[in-house]
Amino acid sequence: MNPEKDFAPLTPNIVRALNDKLIEPVLTCFNDADSRLRYYACEALYNIVKVARGAVLPHFNVLFDGLSKLAADPDPNVKSGSELLDRLLKDIVTESNKFDLVSFIPLLRERIYSNNQYARQFIISWILVLESVPDINLLDYLPEILDGLFQILGDNGKEIRKMCEVVLGEFLKEIKKNPSSVKFAEMANILVIHCQTTDDLIQLTAMCWMREFIQLAGRVMLPYSSGILTAVLPCLAYDDRKKNSGIKEVANVCNQSLMKLVTPEDDELDELRPGQRQAEPTPDDALPKQEGTASGGPDGSCDSSFSSGISVFTAASTERAPVTLHLDGIVQVLNCHLSDTAIGMMTRIAVLKWLYHLYIKTPRKMFRHTDSLFPILLQTLSDESDEVILKDLEVLAEIASSPAGQTDDPGPLDGPDLQASHSELQVPTPGRAGLPNTSGTKGLECSPSTPTMNSYFYKFMINLLKRFSSERKLLEVRGPFIIRQLCLLLNAENIFHSMADILLREEDPKFASTMVHALNTILLTSTELFQLRNQLKDLKTLESQNLFCCLYRSWCHNPVTTVSLCFLTQNYRHAYDLIQKFGDLEVTVDFLAEVDKLVQLIECPIFTYLRLQLLDVKNNPYLIKALYGLLMLLPQSSAFQLLSHRLQCVPNPELLQTEDSLKAAPKSQKADSPSIDYAELLQHFEKVQNKHLEVRHQRSGRGDHLDRRVVL
User: Which of 14, 235, 408, 635 has its CA 20 to 30 A from that of 288?
Assistant: First the structure.
């Protein structure tokens, strides 16, 4: 091309005629089948633009549209000519201050969704040029083209991906420089969708943008929390050894930054006025309405439900009204991820941390959702990971101890979708909440309620025991671990008090016996319960006597544990009376095994004080009698030998007498507490054991009946 260098100046009339007389006919030739005609048309248009220069800007859209088609032309000559014209047009736009960006954006938004590699390269090159012009503020229109840019980032061509990375990087720099003018809310949902894509580069880039948005926009991003969590939480379970470990790191920063945005001020229950209520748009509003829009994240039970619709709020409403945290969507996302057994351990831990954080920062709002969360939190106790169980127990402990849970009715849920069944949270009627107020208790009742525990504490204990009953493996493998941790997180006395109270009404004697044995082992061996053991040792206070009575009544489900409780509380005379009753019980292999374990426990440091009391034979005759009683119950076994050797070490009381002890008045055994009716407790023991015997005989009878039916 070799156009003349000197031309006459263009008049306004000539400029107006350019489109109809020159540009439009030439552009029509761009669609001709003959490649030579297309090339000559390109050459002709180059000459026109070269002469007219800034005068062609009013016709920029039609020129751009024609050039975008030539960019993908199969003929190399046509393509070369279009590139020359393209560079000329870019120079004119760069030099001019009259470029109409507003009218160009709709065309750019349309063309950016092209799947053609050359067309994409053409689009990206123009965005780079427009972004470099100081007088053109393309950042204001970024929400219109951001989704298309992320789709181009997934192009198969390495060069195009690199160009798109550069464009997105430049935009992000501009956002960091001047965040006050950025329309964060209009782009939040676009990022949410691309954070869930399967393309590593798109996902990492979108996640990096999300990280910056959360840090720069702050609470403006709160209305999109559920969508952000839907995108971020699964990434936390990525394998560190794989290439997507970078995504995991960025996702973790996003998660932590978003969590920090939730403050105690978000716990305000005042509803927004109708004019201020933030509306949730349909999924169609999440992105520009163009063909080829991203369809969302990868397939998955959680992702498909929350990819765009659940968390989106219109940007305009976010700017008009103060940001209000609505927990419906957030809780639903957290519940979904916690319920999904395929979710990785780190994601489950992150979900539980979120729940704990929300219960700490927004307890009143969260207690509206407790009934729907409670079953899945109980189910999570069966998780394989100790760390998950620990976090789960922290959440449950916070629910059980939070002052916000004191009310019986925590209020309606924020949304209808979260109204779940309350079957997991049934509570005994008030008449059954405490121990039967019989004359034997002498006014002592075993009510589990305390000022530090709310109404959910007792519900938690009931449902935890239900879960142990229905899932015996959980009790066997995780039971001691769970109960010990709860004793650290909550009040140990309250836990044992309430569990004993509930077990008192347990309809399955076998489970009650198993559970009592587990609780007793924890009570006697766990370091976490040192203070509780000391409290029970002397029974000096009314509270300790109350606790002993409550534990005793449930401990009666297991004869040997009842004796060990008496040893712990130094009720040696009553222990001896109980052992005397063992002659009337059905002695089984399991029974003898428990006696064997009790003998082993007596040799442990916990019962050091008991062994030292054997030196004071005169004042502890019933202790020695009780130990001899256990010895007589045992067959000739290692436990028999162990206890026998211990009793052989008991000194002769006459040999221990000194001159001072002869002069001193004889000391009596530790006086029984006047508040405890031991005779009534012994009757209760007999009653419970008779019930156990009756149940065993009934089961045995059913077995015999079935055997007879088989024979017939």
Answer: 235
Which residues 6+ apart lie within 8 Å of 291 measured at CB? 113
Kindly report the backbone phi and psi dihedral angles of residue 428, in degrees, each rounded to the nearest multiple of 5, phi listed first: -60, 155
Number of neighbours of residue 131 by Cβ within 10 angstroms: 17
d(CA 200, CA 664): 87
CA within 13 Å, CB half, 652: 2
Query: Distance between CA 302 and CA 304 in Å, rounded?
Result: 6
Residue 228 has pLDDT above 60, yes or no: yes
| Angle, helices 158-177/142-152, rounded to nearest 10 degrees | 150
Question: Looking up tokens 């405890």, which residue turns up?
Answer: 676
Nearest to 396 by CA among 326, 473, 477, 338: 338
Scanning the structure block, which residue is given the tokens 């008449």?
A: 431
Angle at 14 between CA 12 and CA 17, to 5 degrees: 110
pLDDT at 240: 66
Q: What is the token pair recorded at 686?
A: 């007999």
Alpha carbon separation from 97 to 49, 94, 137, 678 (Å, rounded): 17, 8, 12, 100
Of 357, 177, 139, nearest to 257 by C-alpha is 357
Average pLDDT over residues 557-566: 96
Asked if pLDDT for residue 589 goes beyond 70, the answer is yes
Please report, to the nearest 10 degrees, the dihedral formed by the alpha carbons of residues 217, 219, 223, 229 taken in order: 80
**Which residues have CB under 8 Å from 515's CB, separation 6+?**
465, 468, 469, 475, 499, 503, 506, 557
In this predicted structure, the answer to whether residue 540 has a pLDDT above a threshold of 50 is yes
Tell me the chain's radius of gyration from C-alpha atoms.
40
CB 377 within 8 A of CB 394: no
- Report the distance separating Cα 534 and Cα 508, nearest Å: 31
Query: Among candidates 365, 300, 367, 376, which has minimal Cα distance to 335?
Result: 376
Tokens representing 370 are 């407790």
CA–chain centroid gap for 52, Å, is: 64
- Over residues 269-307, the pLDDT tens digits come to 544 434 444 444 433 344 444 444 443 344 444 544 444
The predicted model scores a pTM of 0.81
Pairwise CA distance, residues 686 & 691, whole Å = 9
